[in-house]
Design goal:
By secondary structure, the chain is of the alpha+beta class. The protein is built from three helices and eight strands, in the order αββββαββββα. The protein has a single domain (about 5-105), classed as Aspartate Aminotransferase, domain 1, CATH 3.90.1150. α1 (about 5-15) crosses α3.
């Protein structure tokens, strides 16, 4: 991971705290899991990987800096979005996306 991804991971860690959170290196990024499920990921370039319910992705894709996530040369399902670093410029913006991720996390 590059410096921008590491900085984003540090910001996520500071904002989420450690309560009930697991952190793992996955797919060349730093993934943050809650209850064994990926909540968000910090990717190269300071891109936030976000897991959402597919029925909400179309609405979220209308926001600036949001696109369907790509892994390698493949576009991932509608449940996975990338949020560009420009859309995460301050902690208030990042917290808003972390809140969306927590709301969207599937509950068993």
């Amino acid at each position: 991971m590059d410096a921008a991804g590491t900085e984003l991971a540090d910001r996520i860690r500071a904002l989420l705290g450690a309560e009930g959170l697991e952190e793992r290196r996955m797919f060349g990024s730093r993934a943050f899991l809650q209850g064994g499920r990926i909540l968000v990921g910090a990717r190269k370039g300071g891109i936030l990987l976000l897991r959402v319910e597919s029925e909400h992705s179309a609405e979220l894709l209308l926001r600036p800096g949001v696109s369907r996530a790509r892994m390698g040369g493949r576009t991932m399902s509608a449940n996975w979005l990338d949020v560009a670093s420009e859309a995460l410029a301050d902690d208030a913006e990042l917290v808003a996306w972390l809140d969306i991720a927590r709301e969207e996390l599937p509950r068993d």
